[in-house]
Structure formats: structure tokens, C-alpha cells
Inverse folding.
């Protein structure tokens, strides 16, 4: 039989196909006819099987390796005769190798640590049985579709090596790795790059060699860069023996304990290296759990004393970070290059320092106090304040505050709830009412405020222009309305010395803009145009305006800015990917890095809110979802900026993308018989319908958002911007009579939207702010008549039951139910079904036809482990990078 020609069958294994090759032979998929399972067969090379002494030793070693039994270790089932050769029977593992995954770039910290933990568990189990891997590398690690890690080829490097190679020179060509077909030099280079220094020197090795290799793998997962490189094997081995890792390439969000762990694993002297991989696993577990580093009291005192001479801000950072974190940040606002410097590498001035605070829920609206000593932020529990020299925050307000802003003296925090502005002392106490926002407005997610030295507060609500109100109370006055082609302004922030304001411009068509107003004229900053949202602008004393993007380029961005000319002086560039809610005071920067709670998951719940099943994998869902009556199919928007609609098959657990265009697509609705899907785009705000099977191009229906269909599909209720731009109105369009003009259901002041039609087609429910707060109303359909108030208090995102006997709506995080008699119609008293934190605006849901099951998007929670928390990252003296 030729060298490279496999037999059709080996023992009771039928060869199916060749799946790879390694330094020690060809690998094939085979079918075990006895047990009815697929396996991997590795045909051993002739130079091994023809050496009787080596085969005896190999068989003895293979028996030991076959005893390894761990869910993260690829199993060895046995050895079979293959005509004049031998075959190793291995567990067949589907999925990419870690090497293939790392080709995509650096892994997010949590993903890297999760993979590393499983590798460590596998290696720990083998070490406990006296087995050293000796060839641990990304190509020997596979990741199943379910995310389980499998480490392959434990101990085969020793088992397959010639006797003289096992204790002297490294036999690089005998790597047993299963990989996709490649040239022998590629296999050799891959092996050499992960060898421990003692292996490179050809001396006997023990389990500490695996710890070195594990450290290299973890470093490369985090940085996305090869640690040891070279054109020849000798070049790589020389790098292994002499080159120190560049710790500055680790991402800023790398936990301090992981940085220390890497340094302990990548010590060339094995006597000084961490001795047991189980210790590494424990440290990784602590990092994944979000545990903060314990700072010894002596280190805290030393750090505080050292920072005192540099002023209060470095002192606060050093006190929290201690000697650990203050030494290890590589941070830059310079586009397209390596960090300009690292903490501890300056010229004796204040160092860059960082610390991270885990937050177990969603967090937004971070705001540093004027003196930079305190940080305010909002979670679903309310408004928090953290003194930066204290380890625990204080909850000063147990209400759903939005858009907080500090008074100039740092004694008060202003904020809004629905249609009212308040202020509360930073020490806590009863809130003080400032005044109401303009009628029909809501101080919500797009709001922001600036408390000026003269006692006036400038604010935006995201519904029109900029307004001013006295901090002592009164009525708001509009000071800057939107211009032609503009809808409203979002998230206003101040420039130093009350010299101007910066805010986001929401346009009728095209991308969002970023403008500065000096009190006399507006200055537009040139931001690269795309369909991604711009959020949260803030001025930096480094001479930049920072802002957040949502989308493919999600993260914290900066644009150079001249405070004298109010003009941009350069192009915008990325500062920190996946960062949001930035705030700056002096030399202190704080922002949020989203963890696993930054993802949402579609779930089915019962009337008590208990989860019956999880329908989707965690993803960046956005907007509302709509479910077919029987709950089989779900249409939902997914993405972080350039959103597209996806269809989920609830029973099969599969999904497919539905829209493929250049617009942001939001909120799809199933038409009658599931033949069409109706949806809308943002920028421009237009309505479309497309066949659910995707066979035709979408059909333009007209302007508007938030479509809902009558049961027969004849009428489409939707929302349009009011002609005066001061609100939103509900309109109805006749889809069969294209010549008929659309008409308004409720043309009241303020905001009316989200308007499902009753199952009998005679009524329409919607939310309106005509009373000053969102409430649920019902009126006749398709022509408006008498309207009834359904929710005496807050009500949003309403849905009908399939038989029309109930209405359901959200009140903050509470799902309410109301009995309905459509013969009147009459409505009962709202009853609470359950409370549950929702993932993203809007807090939308849908109802199964049985009225007993509901579909929600909720924050993702990992099974069997704590979800990775969001983290507030505080960086002290970060602008020092610009002086280098």
C-alpha cells in the first residue's frame, strides 16, 4: 500500500474521509460499526510502527493516555492494526481550533479567560495523573459549536518521540498535532513558538513546561499577537530564550490579577515559575467572577503617601489601585499606532493609573463630579455615587433617574424622571423638584443636562431643541431649536468655563451629527458619515471631544477640537472599543465596558415571569420583537448600530438574517398568514414590507415608523413625526386603496406611538403622553372615536391577547394585565403579572395566542456561572499620553 493511501477499513472502523494531518501522520474520519459513532483515526508513520522498541514504549504510554477521562480532554479509545501500520483511535471533535479562532484577532477578555479556564482544567487533570502534554499550543485546542474546549494529543509528543529525542534535543518535526493540511515547516514553527525555554534547550521537562505554554496561549488570545516570531525555527527558539513579553500590548481591561498571573507563568527559570496550573485556574476563576483585588493596608498607605505630592486626583487613584494597578496601563488616544507610553515609564510626573469596578447590572450615565473625586452613575436600582477613595458605592436615590448632571459646587445632582426635573443632595435625602420639561417631552435615554455657574440648567430631552431652566425652579425656555432638516438634539454636555455646549444632532435623513454651540452660532464637527448612532459627547482637556458610536465601529471615539475656534482640527479615531458612557473631569476619565450583561437573550416566560425556555443565543438585540400567534417564529432587530432584522425559529433553535441593505432596520411585524413582514428603517424613517420567504425586494409603503396591521391586512397603523417636530402622531394607511390619503388617529400634543390593533379590528391601543406622562389609551379603528384611558399610571408598549379579552403593557420593569370587554368597551383594573429587568429600549414584548406565555428580551445570564459583569473603568492622568 502506498505511504499516503489509507485502507478502506481498519478493524471495525470504516474510513469516511481525510480530515487533517500532523507531524505524526494522516488523520481520517471513520465510522465505528460496533458502537455506531464517528471517530478520528490517526495512521501512525512507518518510522514509528517499524521500530519495535518504540512501538512497545508507545503502546505503554498510550495506555496511560487512554486513562485520561475529562470533559476538556480529547479521548484516546485505543490502537488498531492497519495492514502493515498502526492507527490510533481518537475522539472525533467538531469545530475550529483555537489557532483558527485567533486568526480573527484578539479575543474579548471574558472569552479568552473562559477558554483558558477550560484548558487549565484539562491540563490540571492530566498533571494529577502524571501526564505532561509537552506540545500545548492553539492548534491542539479545539472549540465545539457549544463552546466546550477540548485539548488534544496529551503526552503524544513524548510517546512518539525517538528514545534519543525524549531527553536531549527537541524533535520539532514530530509534533502530533491534528490540523488542517499544511507544510511541515508550518507545523514546526507552530510548535517552536509555544515551547518552554527548557524544551528549547533540550533538557528534561516536567509540568512547568505546560504552564509556560499555557501562558503564551493566554497572552496571545488577549493581545491577538504572536509572542515569539521568526522566519526559521532557530529564530523562534532564540526569541523564546531571550525576548521579554511586551506587557503594554495587553488590553486595558485585562484584570490586574491576570497580568500578574501571566508574568508568573512566563518566567524563564522554571524554579521561579508558578508550579501548579491549578493555581492559575483559581486566579482565572476569581477574575471571571469579577472579584476585586485585595490591596494590603501597607501598600494602600504607601500608594497614598506617594501620590500626595502629586495632588488629589493621583492620590485617589493610587489609593484604590495600590501598587498593582498603578504600574500597568498602556493607554493612548493616538490613532493607528502602539501606545505612546505606559504607566511608570514617564519622567517623574504623575503616572497614568487605572482601576475597574464591576457592576452586576446594566449601567449608564456615568458622571464625574467637578472635583473628580466622585462618580455618579445609574443602574436599574437607581442613582449611585461612589467616592473614588472608597471601595463601595452609595445608592442615593431608589428611582429610575435619567441623564444625571452635577451642580458646579458638587453638592447636588440634577436628573429627570419622565416629564419632571429634580435635584438631590449628593449625601442623599428627599429629592427637590426643579420643574417640568416641555409638554409632550420625556426626560429619557437621549436626555442630558449642564448646570452652569450662573445657576441656570441647560438640558435636552431628545424631542426638540435645547432648553434652559433655573436650578431654583420655574418654566423651561427653548434657547436653541433644531434647524431645517433636523428633528431634535440629544445628550447636551458643557465646555469648560461655560464657553459653549456640545450635543448630538438627530437629522430627518442621513447620519447623526455632532455640533458645538458657542451661544451665538453653531459649529458642526466633521464626523465620518455612516449609519451608526453617535451618543454621549464630552469635552476632554487633552483638546478632544469624545463620543460613543453604536455599530460595527462600536466604542469610544475622539475628535481633535480647538476650544478657541470651536472647530475640529483632525479626524475622528477610535479610543477604546466596546466602551460607552464616558465622563471626564480634569485628568480623570471614566467609562463603561459591557460584560455579558451587555447582551440580550430572547426568552419565553409564563404569567409569573419564570423562564420556560431560552430561544436565542445572547446577541446585540435592538428594538421590539414580534412573534407569530403560535410562537414558532420571531422577527427581531439585531446589531449595535447598523441593525438588520433576523427571523428566529423557536422550536428548531435556528436563525437567519432577513434584511440585507444599507439602512438601519427596526421592528418587524408579521402580516396575516405570515406571508409578509412589515418593518421600518431609520435615517430615513420609512415603512416597507417584504415577503417573509425573502423572494422579492422590499416594497416602499411611505414615511413612518412602528407599523401594526389590522387582522385582515387592509390597514396599517404607524407613527409619524408631527409637522411642527414637537411630537409624534399615530396615522392609518389603507394598503388596498393606494389612492386614499392616510389619516390621523390622535393628533394631540406630545408623543403618541406603538399602536397594535385589536383582534376583531375594531379598536386600536396606543401609548400617549398627552397627560404629561405615558399612559395606555384605546379608541375606535380604523377611524378614531371616543378614547378610553386604560392605565391610570405609567403605561408603555401595549399588546392585545389573541381573543381581545386582555391588554398587557409595561410600567417600567413591571408587566401589567387589564381585563377587557370589547362590547363596551370597558376595562378592568390593571394587575401586576411580574417584574423583570428588560434588556434594551424599548421594553417591548409579545404574547402567545394562549395568553399564558410571553416573549421578552432580557439580559443574558450564563448558565452554571455568574454572568460577566459590566465594569466601570476609571483612568487617572490618562491625558499625560499627549505630552509624550
Amino acid at each position: 500500500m502506498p505511504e499516503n493511501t489509507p485502507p478502506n477499513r481498519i478493524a471495525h472502523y470504516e474510513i469516511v474521509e481525510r480530515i487533517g494531518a500532523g507531524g505524526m501522520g494522516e488523520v481520517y474520519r471513520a465510522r465505528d460499526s460496533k458502537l455506531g459513532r464517528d471517530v478520528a483515526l490517526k495512521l501512525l508513520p512507518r518510522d514509528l510502527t517499524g521500530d519495535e522498541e518504540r512501538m512497545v514504549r508507545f503502546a505503554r504510554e498510550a495506555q496511560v493516555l487512554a486513562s485520561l477521562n475529562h470533559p476538556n480532554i480529547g479521548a484516546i479509545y485505543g490502537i488498531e492494526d492497519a495492514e502493515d501500520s498502526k492507527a490510533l483511535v481518537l475522539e472525533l471533535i467538531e469545530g475550529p481550533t483555537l489557532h483558527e479562532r485567533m486568526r480573527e484577532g484578539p479575543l474579548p477578555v471574558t472569552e479568552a479567560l473562559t477558554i483558558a479556564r477550560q484548558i487549565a482544567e484539562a491540563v490540571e487533570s492530566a498533571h494529577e495523573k502524571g501526564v505532561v502534554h509537552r506540545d500545548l499550543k492553539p492548534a491542539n485546542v479545539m472549540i465545539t459549536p457549544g463552546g466546550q474546549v477540548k485539548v488534544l494529543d496529551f503526552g503524544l509528543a513524548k510517546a512518539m518521540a525517538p528514545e534519543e529525542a525524549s531527553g536531549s534535543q527537541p524533535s520539532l518535526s514530530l509534533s502530533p498535532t491534528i490540523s488542517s493540511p499544511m507544510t511541515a515547516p508550518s507545523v514546526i514553527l507552530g510548535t517552536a513558538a509555544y515551547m518552554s525555554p527548557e524544551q528549547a534547550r533540550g533538557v528534561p521537562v516536567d509540568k512547568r513546561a505546560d504552564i509556560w505554554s499555557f501562558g503564551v496561549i493566554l497572552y496571545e488570545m488577549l493581545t491577538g499577537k504572536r509572542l515569539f516570531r521568526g522566519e526559521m525555527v532557530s529564530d523562534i527558539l532564540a526569541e523564546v530564550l531571550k525576548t521579554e513579553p511586551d506587557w503594554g500590548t495587553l488590553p486595558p481591561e485585562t484584570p490586574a490579577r491576570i497580568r500578574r498571573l501571566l508574568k508568573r507563568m512566563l518566567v524563564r527559570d522554571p524554579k521561579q515559575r508558578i508550579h501548579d496550573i491549578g493555581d492559575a485556574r483559581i486566579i482565572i476563576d476569581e477574575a471571571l467572577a469579577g472579584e476585586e483585588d485585595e490591596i494590603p493596608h501597607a501598600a494602600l498607605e504607601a500608594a497614598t503617601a506617594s501620590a500626595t505630592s502629586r495632588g488629589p486626583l493621583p492620590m485617589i487613584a493610587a489609593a484604590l489601585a495600590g501598587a498593582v494597578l498603578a504600574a500597568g496601563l498602556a493607554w493612548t488616544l493616538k490613532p493607528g499606532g502602539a501606545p505612546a507610553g505606559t504607566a511608570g515609564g514617564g519622567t517623574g510626573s504623575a503616572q497614568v493609573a487605572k482601576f475597574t469596578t464591576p457592576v452586576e447590572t446594566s449601567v449608564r450615565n456615568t458622571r464625574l463630579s467637578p472635583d473628580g473625586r466622585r462618580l455618579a452613575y445609574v443602574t436599574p436600582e437607581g442613582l449611585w455615587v461612589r467616592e473614588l477613595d472608597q471601595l463601595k458605592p452609595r445608592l442615593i436615590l431608589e428611582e429610575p433617574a435619567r441623564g444625571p448632571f452635577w451642580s458646579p459646587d458638587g453638592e447636588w445632582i440634577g436628573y429627570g424622571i419622565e416629564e419632571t426635573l429634580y435635584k438631590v443632595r449628593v449625601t442623599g435625602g428627599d429629592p427637590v423638584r426643579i420643574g417640568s420639561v416641555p409638554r409632550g417631552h420625556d426626560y429619557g435615554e437621549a436626555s442630558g443636562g449642564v448646570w452652569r455657574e450662573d445657576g441656570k440648567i441647560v438640558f435636552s430631552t431628545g424631542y426638540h431643541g435645547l432648553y434652559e431652566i433655573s436650578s431654583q425652579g420655574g418654566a423651561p425656555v427653548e434657547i436653541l431649536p433644531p434647524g431645517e432638516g433636523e428633528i431634535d438634539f440629544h445628550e447636551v454636555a458643557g465646555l469648560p468655563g461655560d464657553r459653549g455646549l456640545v450635543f448630538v444632532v438627530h437629522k430627518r435623513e442621513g447620519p447623526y451629527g455632532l455640533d458645538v454651540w458657542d451661544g451665538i452660532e453653531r459649529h458642526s464637527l466633521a464626523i465620518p458619515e455612516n449609519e451608526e448612532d453617535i451618543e454621549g459627547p464630552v469635552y476632554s482637556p487633552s483638546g478632544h471631544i469624545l463620543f460613543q458610536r453604536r455599530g460595527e465601529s462600536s466604542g469610544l471615539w475622539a475628535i481633535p477640537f480647538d476650544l478657541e475656534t470651536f472647530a475640529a482640527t483632525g479626524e475622528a479615531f477610535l479610543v477604546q472599543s466596546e466602551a460607552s458612557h464616558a465622563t471626564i473631569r480634569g485628568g480623570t476619565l471614566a467609562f463603561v465596558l459591557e460584560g455579558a450583561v451587555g447582551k440580550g437573550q430572547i426568552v419565553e416566560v409564563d404569567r409569573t415571569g419564570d423562564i420556560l425556555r431560552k430561544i436565542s443565543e445572547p446577541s446585540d438585540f435592538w428594538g421590539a420583537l414580534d412573534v407569530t400567534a403560535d410562537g414558532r417564529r420571531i422577527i427581531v432587530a439585531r446589531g449595535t448600530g447598523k441593525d438588520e432584522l433576523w427571523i428566529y425559529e423557536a422550536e428548531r433553535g435556528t436563525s437567519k438574517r432577513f434584511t440585507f441593505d444599507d439602512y438601519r432596520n427596526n421592528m418587524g411585524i408579521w402580516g396575516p398568514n405570515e406571508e409578509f413582514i412589515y418593518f421600518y428603517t431609520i435615517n430615513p424613517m420609512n415603512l416597507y414590507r417584504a415577503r417573509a420567504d425573502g423572494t422579492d425586494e422590499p416594497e416602499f409603503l411611505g414615511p413612518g415608523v412602528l407599523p401594526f396591521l389590522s387582522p385582515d391586512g387592509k390597514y396599517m397603523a404607524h407613527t409619524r413625526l408631527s409637522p411642527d417636530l414637537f411630537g409624534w402622531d399615530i396615522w392609518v394607511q389603507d394598503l388596498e386603496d393606494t389612492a386614499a390619503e392616510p389619516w390621523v388617529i390622535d393628533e394631540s400634543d406630545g408623543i403618541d406611538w406603538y399602536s397594535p390593533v385589536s383582534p376583531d379590528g375594531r379598536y386600536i391601543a396606543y401609548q400617549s403622553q398627552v397627560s404629561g406622562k405615558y399612559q395606555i389609551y384605546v379608541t375606535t379603528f380604523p377611524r378614531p372615536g371616543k378614547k378610553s384611558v386604560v392605565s391610570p399610571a405609567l403605561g408603555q408598549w401595549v399588546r392585545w391577547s389573541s381573543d381581545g379579552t386582555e391588554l398587557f403593557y409595561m410600567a417600567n420593569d413591571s408587566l401589567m394585565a387589564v381585563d377587557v370587554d370589547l362590547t363596551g368597551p370597558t376595562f378592568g383594573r390593571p394587575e401586576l403579572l411580574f417584574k423583570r429587568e428588560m434588556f434594551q429600549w424599548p421594553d417591548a414584548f409579545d404574547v402567545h395566542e394562549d395568553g399564558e406565555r410571553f416573549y421578552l428580551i432580557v439580559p443574558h445570564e450564563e448558565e452554571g456561572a455568574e454572568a460577566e459583569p459590566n465594569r466601570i473603568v476609571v483612568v487617572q492622568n490618562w491625558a499625560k499620553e499627549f505630552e509624550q
Observations:
- Confidence is low (pLDDT under 50) at residues 159-190, 293-349.
- The chain has 13 helices and 58 strands.
